[in-house]
Design goal:
alpha+beta; 143 residues; single chain; 49% helix; 4 strands
Length: 143
């Protein structure tokens, strides 16, 4: 089965596999609870999201250029694709955390909840481990 994934340069990365996602990649999907600030610090060198993306763009992947040429990926190219997709995911996750913060800071509680309502800290979504884990899954899904 061929699976296509767009990367920013408008080329396609195609994985040849009997499964859409390999069993090994699926086994790596149990991401740890880490805040966005924690996993983005280690993401480019290690971490469970980096391991998942590396397996996703494994040795069975190749590039199909706009001109229709097929290029098999060497280890360096696979690492560059993984690093770029990880960086794009970190950027998108940071923007999402910022939006959640703005929306939450500007929200008004319902009248029935006004007595118990507590404003969150401005950096809540950057340091919340469950939110960080959720963002990892969003990055994985985008790939």
């Amino acid at each position: 089965m061929l699976q296509k994934r767009k990367i920013k340069s408008q080329t396609m990365v195609i994985t040849v596999s009997k499964d859409v996602i390999t069993d090994k990649a699926i086994s790596l999907l149990n991401f740890s609870n880490e805040s966005l600030t924690t996993w983005t610090e280690v993401a480019t060198t290690s971490g469970d999201l980096a391991a998942f993306l590396s397996e996703l763009y494994n040795e069975s992947a190749f590039i199909l250029s706009k001109e229709g040429e097929i290029f098999h990926l060497d280890e360096s190219t696979r690492k560059n694709i993984t690093d770029r997709r990880l960086e794009e995911g970190i950027d998108a996750s940071s923007i999402l955390a910022e939006k959640f913060t703005v929306y939450t800071m500007n929200s008004v509680p319902a009248p029935a909840a006004a007595r118990t309502y507590k404003k969150i800290a401005p950096d809540y979504f950057l340091y919340n481990k469950i939110f960080g884990k959720t963002l990892k899954y969003l990055v994985a899904w985008e790939n």
